[in-house]
Amino acid sequence: MAGLISPVRGAASSGKSAGQGKNDPCTLVILGGAGDLSHKKLLPALYNLALEGGLPPQFAIVGFSIESLDDDGYRKFARDGIERFSRRRLTEAGWNNFAPQLHFVSGSFTEPKDYLKLKEQLDRIDQQNGSSGNHIFYFAIPPNFIEVCARNLQEAGLGMPAAAANRFTRVVVEKPIGHDLASAREINQQLARYFDENSTFRIDHYLGKETVENLMVLRFANLIFEPIWTSHYIDHVQITVAEDEGVGTRAAYYDHAGALRDMVQSHILQVLCMIAMEPPRSTAPDAVRDSKLDVIRSLRPFEPVDVERWVIRGQYQEGLIAGEKVKGYLAEEHIAPDSMTETFVALKCYIDNWRWAGVPFYLRTGKRMPKRASEIAIFFKRVPRVLYNSRPTPTLAPNVLSIRIQPDEGLSLTIISKLPGSPLRLAPVKVDFQNSTASPEAYETLLRDLIIGDQTLFMRRDTVEAAWAWIQTVLDVWSVAAVAPYPYAAGSWGPTEAAVMIGKDGRAWRIF
Predict the structure, then answer these.
(1) Under 8 Å CB-to-CB from 214, ≥6 apart: which residues?
(2) CATH 3.30.360.10 occupies which residues in the chain?
(3) Are the CB atoms for 229 and 219 separated by under 8 Å?
(4) What is the SS3 string spanning 184-228?
(5) d(C-alpha 49, C-alpha 55), whole Å
(6) For residue 349, what are the β-bridge partners?
(7) What is the pLDDT of residue 23?
(8) 347 — phi, psi (to 5°)?
(9) How far apart are CA 233 and CA 379, in angstroms?
(10) What is the pLDDT of residues 83-133, one digit of tens each?
(11) Average pLDDT rounded to a whole number, residues 272-279
(12) What is the β-pairing status of strands 311-317 and 169-174?
């Protein structure tokens, strides 16, 4: 986005893990190293970092999973993923520099002796690279394996180093962190038995997107916005994450999760925090995360009656996407024919603090929408019914600041301007800024931060649990009521009830 830069992160703060902010030699172990996440995201991201000099000089990658692969087999697996999914084209020179860093250990997540094999491999790499036992363990695994993997790492001597040791061990876990408040607490407790909080990185790839990072810069590096970033000038805020695809290969997971758990509890709430947070005391990781936590704790709790009025759930049916017929959710493979899982959620919420008192935030996300689009829209209050707004019918449109996260990252501001000629005619015009350079993929940003130990963009335990606590009432009401979600046609913007919900407030959803 023209004029905006990524925020400076990793400023000095207490509680840093050893080596934070440095390119210390280390080894990244991917548990589930031969899985889809590694193939499509992690290995291509690491390759791109290598091309750009973003990896330490002495760095190794070890895949660990049940597949019967050796180092050469794993390199073939990685090369295929890079050729198919990398942001940057694979070159022979780039590959020849990257491939020697790849290793593989075949083993079961549940078999302790296989972790001893892993330790032997890591010891050899540490001796060769001089990496001093600096290890990062990326849990690219289902949540039910987290505890057993953490325990086996600890028992194999691969857990947290002694406090006096000048080395680090970090562990990375993917969202979802649980499926409700109780399970999130259980997973966090399992991790806490073996790894301290400063060494635990809970990754949400959405936070690595360039425009999401730029939200703090937009807020706090541009004085023109801060004075009007309050309930005195802002009428309401809309956050939309629309997807045109269906559940695809994630059907088995998605049918147990649904849109509220999959998108609102993590991605959308994190974006909400960036938009609504108070200026942090510094750019240090915990200062930023403290400010985000304050937002979640200020969200007005839902009462059961609020869920009925302000939370709309939908499920896509057969329809048209880009002129092509697509099947409904219940006809998707691996979906139960009587499933009541929501593929769409729209809700209204309030942040009960001094800055945002009385300003509604409207959040919506759905699958099989007309197009893929993620946007934050700040609607400012209308000008008074005097001067240029005294006669028009309808009244002049409000100013809107639109921050586009994907697919075309950028920012636009809608203002009122005079049309050329006479008589006097007014109309909204758009001032637009677009990102003119290729942005790194989210996983590239997050893996780079992981390697240097910067936790700014990673979720803290208290924030994860606070987010689950806020939506728990919604989950509880849905479990008791057992009311089927409202149907909507694939290719539409969701069920009519979502439009009615916001329409009762005299507002309407933005159409892209």
Answers:
(1) 1, 4, 5, 6, 7
(2) 208-400+482-503
(3) yes
(4) HHHHHHHHHCCCCHHHEEEECHHHHCHHHHHHHHHHHCCCCCHHH
(5) 6
(6) 361
(7) 77
(8) -150, 160
(9) 9
(10) 999 999 999 999 999 999 999 999 999 999 999 999 999 999 999 998 888
(11) 95
(12) unpaired
CATH architecture of 208-400+482-503: 2-Layer Sandwich (3.30)
Better pLDDT: 109 or 3: 109
CATH of domain 26-167: 3.40.50.720
| Residues 269-281, mean pLDDT to the nearest whole number | 95
Start-end of CATH 3.40.50.720 domains in the chain: 26-167
The residue-averaged pLDDT of 324-341 equals 92
267 is catalytic: yes
Terminal Cα distance for the chain, rounded? 19
Of 287, 273, 260, residue with least CA distance to 207 = 273
CA–CA separation, 172 vs 70, rounded Å? 24
Report d(CA 29, CA 381) in Å as an integer: 51
pLDDT mean over 473-487? 91
| Active-site option among 103, 205, 236, 267 | 267
Dump pLDDT digits (tens) for 343-359: 999 999 999 999 999 99
Q: Is the pLDDT of residue 21 over 60?
A: no
**Dist. CA 117–CA 65, nearest whole Å:** 12
At 175, the amino acid letter reads K
Q: Which of 233, 245, 241 is nearest to 263 (CA)?
A: 241
The answer to whether the beta carbons of residues 492 and 343 sit under 8 Å apart is: no
Side-chain-facing half-sphere of 392: CA atoms under 13 Å: 17
CA 219 to chain centre: 19
Contact 146, 139 (CB under 8 A): yes
Q: Is the pLDDT of residue 342 over 90?
A: yes
- The answer to whether 486 and 492 are in contact (CB under 8 A) is no
Q: Which amino acid is at 60?
A: A
Which amino acid type is present at position 178?
A: G
Q: What percent of the chain has pLDDT over 90?
A: 71
pLDDT at 37 over 50: yes
